[in-house]
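Retro notes - structure team

What went well: the batch runner handled both jobs without manual restarts.
What didn't: labels got mixed up in the shared folder, which is why I'm recording both outputs here explicitly, each with its sequence directly above its tokens.

Job 1
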Amino acid sequence: MKDLQALKTTYDAAIAENTSMSEELIKERDKVVTLMENLKKSKGDVASLAKYKTQYLKLESDMKGLLAENEGLKKQNTTLTTQRDSTIVVLGESKKYNEVLVGQNEELSKTVEKGSKLTVLNMKTAAYKVRSSGKQIETEKAGRADVLKLVLQLPKIKLQNLATKPIMFK
């Protein structure tokens, strides 16, 4: 009877921990309580005592299994909590890095927008006829023009420091 009372106390302690297995533990504790009541009502003959002893041993082995499972779940919970915490840290770092990249992207977009505006200043064109000697003579007639000369000025583009560069027109 003392063993059954100790078993019931162990179940009560496990249930008090408020684990996810408390429903199973309550069922097993109720079985122990029922066994204790039956033992009190029994006549004390050898057959009924042997029956109650086997029930007690079965309940005790079930309790050990449930407590072992409970300990395993606690270890898994600890591991999962650690993994979750490290994942949250990595996620936070990734968000910060993403914010930096978004900021850089916005800056580059503004720079490209500034540089995409091309204006031409002081544009002068002239048509020339090229003689066999290579001398170029300015002409007003389009049919006689062999070469077009285009002189223009581009203001400084804010993308980079530009030097004088030849530009080909077709």
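Job 2
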Amino acid sequence: MKNTFAISVLLTAVMALGGCATEQQQPASGGYNNGATTSNYGRIESIRALPAHSGSSGAGAVVGGLLGAVLGNQVGGGSGRTVATVAGAVGGAVVGNNVERNRDAQAAERYEIRVRLDNGDSSTVVQDNVNNLHDGDRVRLVDGHAYRY
């Protein structure tokens, strides 16, 4: 009993920490740049909203299922305990999956901004907001973000 509880707590902690990992998108740049001339100024060619991440990774269902099974296992005895464990696992998986979907639905929208640089090259940056930028605006690129100047 103590070993089962300790293992389930350890697995829950590992899964919870794994859910903290995020994907980082690096800004993409196009065009040829030989390093001799670098321009950080340009004009916005286009701005498009990137689709939000949809669906779920399944981590919420797994963590919820584990927690539900542990809680269900604490109820009853004999075959009643088995039924409670299975019901807890299924119910926990459904709840965990819904929690993960709701969390993903609240994720910030991201924008892809394509800039034609003064030297003729083009660069594309991805950022969380557009800061009232529009097509045709003059911008400066700093650390992968476009700022009006």
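One thing worth noting from job 2: Residues 24-38 have pLDDT under 50 and may be disordered.
We'll revisit the folder naming next retro.
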